[in-house]
Write a structure and sequence with these properties.
single chain, 74 residues, mainly alpha, 2 helices, flat
Amino acid sequence: MTLNFSNEGKVIESWKLDIPDTMSKSDLQAALSRQVKLVEQNAAKWPNDPYEAYRMVAQQILEAFSTPVVAIAH
């Protein structure tokens, strides 16, 4: 999975994501995969306004950077 972040440079010229020190690369990949699946599963619930939908999806994906991965038994 590849994420591309763009900075429009309107407020600040650079920024960074502060990921918890305890999060490994595999944890981040798992969290991102989980969040993408949640976005896909809830597509029917997206707002009709494309800007609101974009905001909601972005918020959901960014949650992966702070949410610890919890093993779920299947």
